[in-house]
From TrEMBL:
Upper taxonomic lineage: Eukaryota, Viridiplantae, Streptophyta, Embryophyta, Tracheophyta
EC number: 2.5.1.18
UniProt protein name: Glutathione S-transferase
Annotated keywords: Cytoplasm, Transferase
Similarity remark: Belongs to the GST superfamily.
Every GST N-terminal domain range: 4-83
Length: 224
Protein backbone atom coordinates (compact mmCIF):
# COMPACT_ATOMS: atom_id res chain seq x y z
CA UNK A 1 0.00 0.00 0.00
CA UNK A 2 1.25 3.49 -0.87
CA UNK A 3 2.40 5.52 2.11
CA UNK A 4 0.86 8.99 1.94
CA UNK A 5 3.16 10.25 4.70
CA UNK A 6 6.26 9.80 2.57
CA UNK A 7 6.52 11.50 -0.81
CA UNK A 8 9.39 11.93 -3.21
CA UNK A 9 9.28 14.85 -5.58
CA UNK A 10 11.65 14.14 -8.45
CA UNK A 11 12.27 14.29 -12.18
CA UNK A 12 12.47 11.02 -14.14
CA UNK A 13 16.10 11.44 -15.23
CA UNK A 14 17.48 12.94 -12.02
CA UNK A 15 20.40 10.90 -10.65
CA UNK A 16 19.95 12.79 -7.38
CA UNK A 17 16.33 11.71 -7.12
CA UNK A 18 17.16 8.09 -7.90
CA UNK A 19 19.58 7.97 -4.93
CA UNK A 20 16.75 8.87 -2.63
CA UNK A 21 14.41 6.29 -4.15
CA UNK A 22 17.13 3.63 -3.86
CA UNK A 23 17.57 4.45 -0.16
CA UNK A 24 13.83 4.09 0.49
CA UNK A 25 13.60 0.89 -1.55
CA UNK A 26 16.57 -0.72 0.24
CA UNK A 27 14.83 -0.02 3.53
CA UNK A 28 11.51 -1.26 2.24
CA UNK A 29 9.79 2.09 2.85
CA UNK A 30 6.67 2.69 0.76
CA UNK A 31 6.41 6.17 -0.74
CA UNK A 32 4.44 8.16 -3.24
CA UNK A 33 6.45 9.31 -6.26
CA UNK A 34 5.49 12.72 -7.66
CA UNK A 35 6.96 13.60 -11.04
CA UNK A 36 8.10 17.21 -11.30
CA UNK A 37 8.66 19.17 -14.50
CA UNK A 38 11.90 21.00 -13.71
CA UNK A 39 11.39 23.22 -16.75
CA UNK A 40 8.03 24.39 -15.51
CA UNK A 41 8.21 24.08 -11.74
CA UNK A 42 5.09 23.32 -9.75
CA UNK A 43 3.92 25.39 -6.80
CA UNK A 44 4.52 22.33 -4.67
CA UNK A 45 8.25 22.31 -5.55
CA UNK A 46 8.58 26.09 -5.11
CA UNK A 47 6.95 25.76 -1.72
CA UNK A 48 8.86 22.69 -0.60
CA UNK A 49 12.32 23.76 -1.75
CA UNK A 50 12.26 27.51 -1.40
CA UNK A 51 16.04 27.88 -1.38
CA UNK A 52 17.28 25.84 -4.35
CA UNK A 53 13.96 25.06 -6.09
CA UNK A 54 15.41 21.72 -7.17
CA UNK A 55 14.45 18.07 -6.97
CA UNK A 56 14.63 15.74 -5.17
CA UNK A 57 12.57 16.73 -2.16
CA UNK A 58 11.46 14.18 0.40
CA UNK A 59 8.21 15.18 2.05
CA UNK A 60 7.76 13.30 5.31
CA UNK A 61 4.68 14.06 7.41
CA UNK A 62 4.26 17.24 5.33
CA UNK A 63 7.77 18.45 6.17
CA UNK A 64 10.25 18.87 3.31
CA UNK A 65 13.86 17.69 3.34
CA UNK A 66 16.08 18.89 0.49
CA UNK A 67 19.44 17.90 -1.03
CA UNK A 68 19.93 14.24 -1.86
CA UNK A 69 22.82 13.60 0.57
CA UNK A 70 20.91 15.24 3.41
CA UNK A 71 17.81 13.25 2.47
CA UNK A 72 19.71 9.96 2.47
CA UNK A 73 21.02 10.64 5.96
CA UNK A 74 17.52 11.58 7.11
CA UNK A 75 16.17 8.33 5.68
CA UNK A 76 18.94 6.37 7.40
CA UNK A 77 18.15 7.98 10.75
CA UNK A 78 14.38 7.70 10.40
CA UNK A 79 14.12 4.10 9.21
CA UNK A 80 16.85 2.20 11.00
CA UNK A 81 16.43 -1.17 9.23
CA UNK A 82 19.16 -1.86 6.64
CA UNK A 83 21.66 0.82 7.82
CA UNK A 84 23.20 2.74 4.91
CA UNK A 85 25.93 4.56 6.84
CA UNK A 86 28.61 2.76 8.85
CA UNK A 87 27.99 2.93 12.61
CA UNK A 88 31.45 4.10 13.64
CA UNK A 89 31.96 7.94 13.58
CA UNK A 90 35.29 7.89 11.73
CA UNK A 91 33.90 5.58 9.06
CA UNK A 92 30.87 7.85 8.76
CA UNK A 93 33.12 10.86 8.26
CA UNK A 94 35.15 9.00 5.63
CA UNK A 95 31.94 8.03 3.82
CA UNK A 96 30.77 11.67 3.73
CA UNK A 97 34.21 12.75 2.53
CA UNK A 98 34.15 10.42 -0.49
CA UNK A 99 30.54 11.21 -1.33
CA UNK A 100 31.33 14.91 -1.58
CA UNK A 101 34.65 14.23 -3.32
CA UNK A 102 32.88 12.26 -6.07
CA UNK A 103 30.19 14.92 -6.37
CA UNK A 104 32.61 17.83 -6.63
CA UNK A 105 35.49 16.25 -8.50
CA UNK A 106 33.88 13.62 -10.73
CA UNK A 107 30.24 14.55 -11.30
CA UNK A 108 30.78 18.28 -11.73
CA UNK A 109 33.80 17.80 -14.02
CA UNK A 110 31.97 15.14 -16.07
CA UNK A 111 28.99 17.50 -16.39
CA UNK A 112 31.25 20.24 -17.72
CA UNK A 113 33.05 17.79 -20.05
CA UNK A 114 29.62 16.89 -21.43
CA UNK A 115 28.43 20.46 -21.91
CA UNK A 116 31.58 22.28 -23.00
CA UNK A 117 33.64 21.93 -26.14
CA UNK A 118 37.30 22.22 -27.11
CA UNK A 119 39.91 22.59 -24.38
CA UNK A 120 37.27 22.97 -21.68
CA UNK A 121 35.81 19.57 -22.61
CA UNK A 122 39.28 18.00 -22.68
CA UNK A 123 40.47 19.53 -19.40
CA UNK A 124 37.32 18.67 -17.50
CA UNK A 125 37.36 15.09 -18.80
CA UNK A 126 40.99 14.81 -17.63
CA UNK A 127 40.11 16.20 -14.21
CA UNK A 128 37.20 13.79 -13.85
CA UNK A 129 39.44 10.90 -14.84
CA UNK A 130 42.12 11.89 -12.35
CA UNK A 131 39.53 12.01 -9.57
CA UNK A 132 38.15 8.66 -10.72
CA UNK A 133 41.58 7.12 -10.14
CA UNK A 134 41.13 7.84 -6.43
CA UNK A 135 37.74 6.13 -6.49
CA UNK A 136 39.35 3.13 -8.22
CA UNK A 137 41.77 2.79 -5.28
CA UNK A 138 38.90 3.03 -2.82
CA UNK A 139 36.83 0.20 -4.31
CA UNK A 140 39.74 -2.19 -5.05
CA UNK A 141 39.13 -5.62 -3.49
CA UNK A 142 35.57 -4.82 -2.39
CA UNK A 143 32.22 -5.91 -3.76
CA UNK A 144 30.54 -2.64 -2.78
CA UNK A 145 31.81 0.61 -1.26
CA UNK A 146 29.74 -0.44 1.74
CA UNK A 147 31.57 -3.84 1.90
CA UNK A 148 29.41 -6.91 1.32
CA UNK A 149 26.23 -4.82 1.08
CA UNK A 150 25.21 -1.71 -0.79
CA UNK A 151 25.61 1.33 1.46
CA UNK A 152 25.43 5.12 1.42
CA UNK A 153 28.49 5.55 -0.78
CA UNK A 154 27.22 3.06 -3.36
CA UNK A 155 24.02 5.10 -3.64
CA UNK A 156 25.95 8.38 -3.77
CA UNK A 157 28.18 7.07 -6.55
CA UNK A 158 25.52 4.96 -8.22
CA UNK A 159 25.20 7.42 -11.13
CA UNK A 160 28.66 6.28 -12.30
CA UNK A 161 27.16 2.87 -13.15
CA UNK A 162 24.37 3.92 -15.51
CA UNK A 163 24.41 7.71 -16.01
CA UNK A 164 28.07 8.40 -16.75
CA UNK A 165 28.11 6.10 -19.83
CA UNK A 166 25.16 8.04 -21.29
CA UNK A 167 26.81 11.37 -20.42
CA UNK A 168 29.96 10.17 -22.21
CA UNK A 169 28.00 9.22 -25.31
CA UNK A 170 25.92 12.41 -25.37
CA UNK A 171 28.90 14.68 -24.80
CA UNK A 172 31.43 12.71 -26.83
CA UNK A 173 34.09 12.33 -24.16
CA UNK A 174 35.61 9.29 -22.51
CA UNK A 175 36.56 8.64 -18.91
CA UNK A 176 35.56 5.11 -17.98
CA UNK A 177 37.89 2.71 -19.75
CA UNK A 178 37.29 -0.71 -18.13
CA UNK A 179 40.98 -1.59 -18.60
CA UNK A 180 42.03 1.50 -16.67
CA UNK A 181 39.31 1.13 -14.06
CA UNK A 182 38.85 -2.63 -13.55
CA UNK A 183 37.69 -2.34 -9.93
CA UNK A 184 35.06 0.31 -10.71
CA UNK A 185 33.94 -1.81 -13.67
CA UNK A 186 33.31 -4.86 -11.50
CA UNK A 187 31.59 -2.70 -8.86
CA UNK A 188 29.36 -1.34 -11.65
CA UNK A 189 28.29 -4.84 -12.55
CA UNK A 190 27.66 -5.83 -8.91
CA UNK A 191 25.67 -2.65 -8.37
CA UNK A 192 23.51 -2.91 -11.48
CA UNK A 193 22.85 -6.63 -10.82
CA UNK A 194 21.48 -5.91 -7.35
CA UNK A 195 17.75 -6.77 -7.23
CA UNK A 196 16.78 -3.36 -5.81
CA UNK A 197 18.83 -1.41 -8.37
CA UNK A 198 18.41 -3.56 -11.47
CA UNK A 199 15.27 -2.13 -13.04
CA UNK A 200 15.50 1.41 -11.73
CA UNK A 201 17.77 3.40 -14.11
CA UNK A 202 15.78 5.50 -16.59
CA UNK A 203 15.59 4.17 -20.19
CA UNK A 204 18.97 4.69 -21.87
CA UNK A 205 17.71 6.05 -25.22
CA UNK A 206 15.32 8.50 -23.58
CA UNK A 207 18.12 9.64 -21.24
CA UNK A 208 20.47 10.07 -24.19
CA UNK A 209 17.93 12.21 -26.09
CA UNK A 210 17.35 14.28 -22.97
CA UNK A 211 21.06 14.92 -22.42
CA UNK A 212 21.62 15.71 -26.10
CA UNK A 213 18.84 18.28 -25.99
CA UNK A 214 20.40 19.85 -22.85
CA UNK A 215 23.77 20.09 -24.62
CA UNK A 216 22.16 21.78 -27.65
CA UNK A 217 20.25 24.21 -25.41
CA UNK A 218 23.42 25.01 -23.48
CA UNK A 219 25.47 25.58 -26.65
CA UNK A 220 22.84 27.90 -28.14
CA UNK A 221 22.70 29.91 -24.90
CA UNK A 222 26.47 30.26 -24.76
CA UNK A 223 26.62 31.19 -28.44
CA UNK A 224 28.78 28.24 -29.62
N1 LIG B 1 22.73 18.98 -5.03
C1 LIG B 1 21.37 18.66 -5.38
C2 LIG B 1 21.26 18.66 -6.89
C3 LIG B 1 19.81 18.58 -7.36
C4 LIG B 1 19.64 18.96 -8.83
O1 LIG B 1 20.53 19.53 -9.49
N2 LIG B 1 18.43 18.68 -9.37
C5 LIG B 1 18.10 19.05 -10.72
C6 LIG B 1 17.44 17.91 -11.46
S1 LIG B 1 18.57 16.63 -11.83
C7 LIG B 1 17.07 20.19 -10.68
O2 LIG B 1 16.14 20.16 -9.90
N3 LIG B 1 17.24 21.17 -11.57
C8 LIG B 1 16.36 22.29 -11.67
C9 LIG B 1 17.09 23.59 -11.62
O3 LIG B 1 18.35 23.59 -11.60
O4 LIG B 1 16.44 24.63 -11.62
C10 LIG B 1 20.98 17.31 -4.76
O5 LIG B 1 21.89 16.50 -4.53
O6 LIG B 1 19.80 17.08 -4.47
Amino acid sequence: MENKDTKVLSFWVSPFGLRVEWALKLKGVEYEYIEEDVFNKSNLLLQMNQVHKKVPVLIHHNKPICESFVIMEYIDETWTQYPLMPQEPHQRAVTRFWASFAEEKVLQAAGKAMMFSGDEKKNNAENAKEAMEKIEELIKGKKFFGGENIGYLDLALGWISYFLPVMEEAGNFHIMDPLEFPAISSWKKNFLDHPIIKDTPPPREKTLCHLQSRIIAFASRSGD
